[in-house]
Design brief:
There is one protein chain. This protein is 25% helix and 33% strand. By secondary structure, the protein is of the alpha+beta class. It has one domain. The radius of gyration is 13 Å and the shape is globular.
Length: 102
Amino acid sequence: MAMETLSEAMTRLERDGYTESVAAHDDGLLHCSGCDAVCDPHDLTIDEVVRFEGDSNPDDEAVLFALNCGEHKSLYAVAFGPDTPPNDVAAVRALTKRHRDG
């Protein structure tokens, strides 16, 4: 069975109502396009995490978070590599820790 691609996962989640987007803001905080609020990653519900790993190149890694702030369902996609912005790195670390710790 073929792995789901990033675009396929985004399309699937958009069909499930994840229509807003989230972007990393200063200090790893997240900006929601739906409510225009800046949120701490610890205040969001993580409904799903989808990881993508390159077969031959470790720089081909990405993660997709399906997030819920109570009012909006949002997607946050980040490609990993040496050029990943520090704000994205901080946000992904916080979200990953929250997801792992429950």
